[in-house]
Amino acid sequence: MVRLIPVVASCVFAALLTLGCSANPEQSQGQRPILFAPGLGMSTLRVDVDPEGITFDFLVPVMNPDTPALDVALESGLPRDSVNNVAQWLALEIDSNTGAASNSPGVQVAPVSFGENFAKECPRYLDMAGGLEALGWKADKTLVCAPFDYRYPPGENTFVTDLASRVTELFKETGQKTVLACHSQGCLMTLHALRTLNQEWVSEYVHSLFSLAGQFSGCSDCVSWAFSPGWDWNAQDPDGSPVDPTWVGEMALGLQPEVYADTVLYRGEVLNGESVLYRATDTVQLLNDRGARAMAQATKRYSLNSRPWFQKGNRFGQQLPVPARFVFGSDLSTTIGFDFSSPNQPRPIMSDGDGGDSSFMNRAPKNWTRSVACDMRELPGVSHMEIITNPVALNLLSQTASVAAQEVECVGP
Fold it and tell me: Can you tell me whether residue 361 is helix, strand or coil?
């Protein structure tokens, strides 16, 4: 995991963005608001365990290395003698026949709040918020966080209704359409919202989509989490998982041949002198072969390719009703899968990307965006987490949010 680069929210930082100090952080009246959807495991969740009468806040430790996740849980109500029960409480139950996922009995999970308290909802992104505040946005007023229950895939949590409600409120408060900004998994949630909400409503209330290293497909290396140990409280574990093996939000999305083509993503044990090869179309077989049968069943239910909203773009090339811009890093060695053919430790299979997501994923919008040359911008050498404080990326977000939708400029070179 890459730590965030500290950002000083000052005119010095604003100058780096080539916008000088003309923006006044206090002048937020009438400014176009930004609603930001975070990445996997970087939303603060409120957990209610009814049988025990316990309520506490939860952050995935390895995804929030600068925030003491265990302390957050303890200070918000988790009894110390219940620390070892949290993983079980947050695990999902997957129906062996239908693949449907549900909370453990008596457990309720939701975002701690939505668009009300950026620092509490999305602590990993405080440096990004500081950079945008230096340019005139104001946290919890014109810059709000949109947390969600990342254990579930798009359409299986409250994100769409939460987003629609908060965007409507922002329009009433500012008189402006909202820019939907996002990072990583948050972009898949945002795409789902843009595809499934009433399109006239979207055109009336949403200004544009701005993606920072966004996920718009299934994640190839994430599939391995289904047959790996789950998360633990050690935030500094370099091999620590960001999920429980039952969380279907990433692992049951399937992998799309339109994105990965026929690339070999996994290699299995050697049979008859040859290792078994797994491509995008072999995801369910891979999960079954590696013993993750419940997740294989869930993938049959939740795979993106089975969802009409996803196929609007991925298969039929339908554009969004608002301008969309995609900025991401590249030219960094990135894991896309694993080779299990060796008798020793699995070896990662590498490709190009931003060190977190592969270029296959980052370039997925090419299948449906208006103009690849205009709408997409690659920043060589910028990592998956560095992108959220990168001056070029924030400059492009600021420029996009500062003009009318019909005047949004290209981000491409």
Answer: helix
Global confidence as pTM: 0.92
**How crowded is the C-beta side of 123, counted as CA atoms within 13 Å?**
18
List, in sequence order, every residue forming a beta bridge with 212; answer none if it has no partner: 183, 327
Query: Maximum distance among all alpha carbons in the chain?
Result: 70
Would you say how long the chain is, in residues?
413
**382: nearest Cα among 374, 391, 369:** 391
Beta strands across the sheet bearing 143-145: 143-145, 34-37, 178-184, 206-214, 324-330, 376-380
- What contacts 226, CB < 8 A, 6 or more positions away? 245, 251, 287, 290, 292, 295
Q: What is the pLDDT of residues 369-379, one digit of tens each?
A: 999 999 999 99
pLDDT tens per residue across span 172-227:
999 999 999 999 999 999 999 999 999 999 999 999 999 999 999 999 999 999 99
Strands 274-278 and 266-271, bridge-based pairing: antiparallel
Q: Are 178 and 149 in contact (CB under 8 A)?
A: no
First to last CA, the chain: 29
Conformation bin of residue 323: beta by default, left when phi > 0, alpha when psi is -120 to 50: beta
| Euclidean distance between CA atoms 373 and 375, whole angstroms | 6
Residues with Cβ within 8 Å of residue 374, at least 6 apart in sequence? 410, 411, 412
